[in-house]
Amino acid sequence: MPLPWTKGLRALLILAIDTSCATAQAALTENGVVLCELALQDKKTHSVKLLPMIDLLFQLSGRSLAEVELIAVVSGPGSFTGLRIGVSTVKMLAFARQIPVMGINTLDYLAAVVNRSQEGIVCPILDARNETVYYSLYQYGERIAPYGAEAVSILCDTFGAVFLNQPDKPVWFCGDGVLRYRDLLMRHLGNRFREVPAECLLGRASGAARLAWERMQAGREHGIPASDLEIFYLRKPQAERMLEQTKEQQEAKTNACFASWKAEEDRRNNHGN
Q1: I need a labelling partner for 177 at 20 to 30 A (CA). Which of 28, 97, 99, 134 fits?
Q2: Would you tell me how many other CB atoms lie within 10 Å of the CB of residue 2?
Q3: Cross-strand pairs, 27
Q4: Using one digit for the tens of pLDDT, what is the confidence trace for 35-92?
């Protein structure tokens, strides 16, 4: 029986998947209600464990892929490899049954675990490696700052300046960046630092399903064909950045060699004259 608050809303069976960090997650919800949810963090890669998790999800819930009306996937930013595995898996499942899909921004998804009436600022942070984090800011369920990628030390200094005149305003942190930079954040923010409960720190796949369901009910977004689904990287993958850097270095070296050759040619010509 539908819950009272869902009366009059269209029921949707949604499969949600999150592979944006080390924990693989999958959930099945109907009309906003969680039917089954699984999370697994071990040494196996997402490519090995994700499909068996989804299969177990259907077994435990007594439902099937044929009944799914939307697949929601956490589509970035986050682990480049994890995101590619999650999005590729969703595309494969969606193509098989012509199921529409919806990408959910990782930062929006993480912020949604915090009570929307909670006082203060919500700041999801994701470890982007090289002492850098992906982040954004939210208040009362609404994003109030652009998605960004910043050195964590600079972000901490920014917080110190922004909240200098608001010493009592708490900042709620979530995401895997908290695991790595907790001490640094606490040093900079002092008693303003807050951390969401451990069970919500890395998000919940059912939260991604909930966001997708709410957006569809509000008419803000609709499912798209799997072929149109893209990863939101926020910044280019490291391999691509290194390739561009190598090309720039090679181009600079070539230009320097040409300049040296040209100078030598000019010297010889001037000497000959």
Answers
A1: 28
A2: 13
A3: 16, 37
A4: 999 999 887 889 999 999 999 999 999 999 999 999 999 999 999 999 999 999 999 9
Nearest to 154 by CA among 188, 192, 124, 107: 188
The better pLDDT of the pair 191, 167 is held by 191
Cβ atoms of 212 and 70 within 8 Å: the answer is yes
Cα–Cα distance, 203 to 176 (Å, whole number): 9
**Nearest Cα to 209, choosing from 138, 113, 142?**
113
Phi/psi of residue 113, nearest 5 degrees: -75, -15
Q: What angle do CA 211, 215, 216 make, to 5 degrees?
A: 120
- Range in 92-101, 108-117, 194-203 the model is least confident about: 108-117
